[in-house]
User: What shape does this take?
Amino acid sequence: METVPLQKSPAIVWENKQRQTIDAVQIDADPSITLKHCADIVIDASELRSIKLENCERITIRNGWLHDSDRIAVDVYRSREVRVEGCRIENVVNGVYAVESQSIAVVGNFVRNVRGPYPRGQMVQFNNVTGPDNRVMLNYAINERGKSSPEDVINLYQSEGTKDSPILVEYNYLVGDPRDGSEDKSKSGSGIMLADCGGAYQLCRSNVILSAGQVGIGVAGGHDIHVMDNRIYGAKSNVSNVGLYVWNQSEKPGGAVRIVCNRVWWIAKSGEQNAWWNGGGMGPVQMKGNLFADASLSKNLPPPPSQAPQPPHPYFTAGPGGPRIVRVPWPLEK
Assistant: This one.
């Protein structure tokens, strides 16, 4: 374990830089770091407001604290091989927003209170993200009542993986307010929204959703969309609607949807059980092994993960000499 002092720095703006590391800095400017046409950059163990990437390659953002920004915490445009891992992201407009990009990985982060407003308000949104090796996994999100205004916590908009490497949304733990659930949240927001306005080759599995939006998981279009082994629980609120649905809301043909081995308990605002709905437009939906209106689900939910991101584990302290980060060795994802 290593304790590293944070060095205050003005905003960093780099263009056409390669093979550089930004380590243990504290930047109050917003955006804190802007990279354009850069490659092989690591941003490590730093306290920042926000980061903007444009036309970059092989960028790693890890072990950081991004907070209290009126911008998107990590704004990615036309970039590839970008990893955001093991970060705390709090009180921002949006967590990670990737547009027209490839090979984007958002892994092991803790995100609290995204504020929007619409159309922002996601922990992660992929917008026209394509190709192999895209993933959103092992993240923990909380949106507290009165402190956040989330839309979809995870949104895949017109994004396509490949047959051999679908976009993975897996092992995420998504929570509304820990006490009040989805009360007063968006009337159109969801825990996870797949194939929004179309998309393809998306695999959503082994996520836990606890009253994270008016819908738990939605499949809104696209083809080759698989929803498997998720636990979706929704308490009654003034916006709660349906736990899991398939409904083609795009103007594009949809199909090849599999809904397998999900457990769902969801109470609509009317007070009625509303675990599942098929709104049509997707052709035959393959259904197997699901438990809808699963009254035992509340007793079989895993506990929330630690709020220390994993991997790695950043801890910020304010001891003698000013802010420091306690850096713990972290395992690379295999």
Notes: Residues 108-311 form one domain. The mean pLDDT is 93.
